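So, is this right?
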Amino acid sequence: MNSLRRACVVLTAAAGLGFALVPVASADSLQTVDYTSEDGAWPLQGSAHYAGPGDEVRVWVSREILKVDVQSGFRDLRVEMSPPAGETLHTGTYSGARYRWSEDPATDVPGFLVVSGSFGCGDDYAEFTLDRLDRAADGSVTGLDATFVQRCGAPDGPATRGEVHFDA
């Protein structure tokens, strides 16, 4: 009986150790977009947190413009970030970014656009940092960690601060 009890304890301990060594895989990929705006900021106001899979978060690059789209019920958000003309989008900090619509040609400064609920700012002053920009062989975005500070109308206007974390 003692040997049977010892065998059960050893098997129980071994089974517990086995479970501890099994990696836990997540079925959901990381997809979050957050922002907080100072009073008077435009077009984003207040704060928001979006997270997939409940909120649809899409990230892609087209013509060296990084696009982040969020659809959450009837609310939507788009943030676009681009390098100066002639540069390839890469990790790093882009200072002095100004308004640039997707169809506008690249300029000698980085481009930035934020639109929510069909409202945007045609006079953006922004800075953004791409801490991580991972792409697949076909160029699709597989990972992104980015932060931004956007001001509408003046370089010292009320700020919106945001961040994006994305793993496909």
In short: Residues 34 and 49 are 5 Å apart (CA to CA).
